[in-house]
Every structure is written in C-alpha cells, then in structure tokens.
Design goal:
The chain is an alpha/beta fold. The chain has two domains: 3-163 and 241-257, 3-Layer(aba) Sandwich (Rossmann fold); 168-235, no CATH class. The chain has eleven helices and six strands. The protein has helices at residues 3-11, 64-74, 101-113, 129-141, 158-161, 169-180, 182-185, 190-194, 217-222, 227-233, 251-257, and strands at residues 22-31, 37-45, 53-58, 79-84, 122-127, 145-151. Strand 3 (53-58), helix 2 and strand 4 form a beta-alpha-beta unit. Helix 1 (3-11) crosses helix 2 (64-74), helix 3 (101-113) packs across helix 4 and helix 4 crosses helix 11.
Length: 259
C-alpha cells in the first residue's frame, strides 16, 4: 500500500482492503502478433494467483497514479495488468493514435488466456483514451470480457476529435502536448482529475490555439509535425473512411448480449 492508494481508497469510500501483501512484477514484455513488445506490470495478492483480472491499457506510462490504482484494486481481491500502449511508457513500436489498440488489445487478451494464473474472468477499466482502448478490445475479444468500468469515453474515437461536426482544437492540442511534452501541458492527471469530484478549471493558455492553418499548429506547439495531428486535420470531411476502423458501433451491443 502506498500513501496515494490509502488516500484515494478513503476518498472513494471503498471497502476495507482484504490484504496489504501485494506481489508486483514490473516490465513484463508481452509480444504482439507483429513482434512488438509492450511493457506490462502485474499486481496480485500473495497467494491469489487465480483471481479475476482487471486490464488497464494506457499511453500515459505506468507511474505512481496507476500504481496506486493497481494497489487499490489488488488489495481488494483482483489481479491487475497495467500495460503501456505501444510507443509509450517503455513499450516498443510507434504510437499511431487509436489505430493499434484493437489488435494490441486482442493480442494481450490472447496472451492472458494462456497464463496458468488466469481464471477466465476479465474486466476492463479506463478513462478517456484508456476507455477508447477498452472499447477496441471489446470489439476484438468481447466474449471473454465479463465487466467494464469506463469514464468520459466513447466507442467512436472520431467523435472525440470531431465532436459536434467541428474539430475539438483545445482538447486535441492539450492531449498532443500531454503525449509529446508532458512537462508543459499539465492537463492529464487521470486519478485526481478524472475520478475525483469535478472542479472548474480555467482553460489552458496555449498560444498555438490562435494560429492558422490548423495543420501547422502542432509544429508551433511542439516544434515539429506530429503524425496523429496531421492525420486528424487532413481527414476532416464527414464520412471520411479514414475514421471507420476507429468506430466500434457493435462493441456495446456485443458486450451487452453476452451478459
């Protein structure tokens, strides 16, 4: 147990921990079907190797905030797999935003199903991009997933980039800065910002928000063009087939049907 996990457990009014004796295995290298290895941590209670598994896939690393969450869950009777999406947090490959999550999620679940400590009960958990990655995994491997806990996310990733038929400039830029220059963005703090009572924050002060054309905003803000930003601004037309692989309209129904 860490100080952070104790504080969060109290704020969330969670049941008492069943154990404080948690085993941690860090930087397990999971090989995907194309050979890229993704860095993964496993948390589980001592002697609890066959408990249900919660899978969390994140592009924001596997640092303190995620370790606190993994400890909270494993202290209460779960195993937790915490995985860095490709191209982030020590995982191999390059991040191509959202496009790799379906296959990587399926490969991760396939690996999990072959482990002797897996009991066949799997849940997904995530906020924002983590939730998008979870929907992608449901689309690929829905029948194996027993539960999901998702927050502030959509099963259609394009609806976050082009909400209400317009480009979500502020959100897209803040997220891009968080991935490329986290020291300057100060935007994503998933545990305190996503899962605690909301407070009204002032809008971020990004000078690049006032620039045109949009395809050069990433270069101004980051210092170079960012591949996913260029994808976003170059596929702005409604119905552009570019976005089709990121829309999982059947995932919610597939999950509900198996319940």
């Amino acid at each position: 147990m860490s100080f952070g996990s104790r504080v969060l457990a109290g704020l969330w009014d969670l049941p008492d921990a069943k154990t404080r004796d948690i085993i941690e295995h860090h930087d397990i290298r999971l090989s995907m079907s194309d050979g890229v290895e993704l860095a993964t941590d496993r948390y589980y209670p001592q002697g609890g190797g066959n408990l249900p598994v919660i899978l969390i896939r994140s592009p924001y690393g596997r640092g303190d905030q995620f370790r606190d969450l993994a400890l909270i869950l494993s202290e209460r009777g779960f195993q937790v797999l915490l995985q860095s999406c490709r191209g982030t947090g020590g995982s191999g490959g390059s991040l191509r935003v959202s496009f790799q999550e379906e296959q990587d999620g399926a490969d991760t679940i396939h690996w999990l199903s072959s482990q002797s400590w897996y009991c066949g009960r799997l849940a997904l958990l995530g906020t924002s991009y983590l939730g998008n990655a979870a929907w992608a995994a449901v689309h690929a491997a829905g029948p194996q997933i027993a539960a999901m806990v998702l927050h502030a996310t959509l099963s259609d990733a394009s609806a976050e980039t082009y909400a209400f038929e317009g480009f979500t400039l502020e959100g897209c830029l803040a997220w891009t800065l968080e991935l490329t220059r986290p020291e300057s963005a100060d935007t994503v703090r998933l545990l305190p910002r996503g899962w605690l009572p909301e407070k009204q924050d002032p809008p971020p002060n990004f000078p690049a928000l006032n620039l045109l054309p949009l395809r050069n905003v990433d270069q101004s803000a980051v210092g170079h063009h960012v591949c996913w930003w260029q994808d976003w601004v170059n596929h702005a037309e409604p119905g552009d087939p570019f976005w089709a692989p990121l829309n999982y309209p059947q995932a919610p129904q597939r999950f509900r049907r198996q319940r």
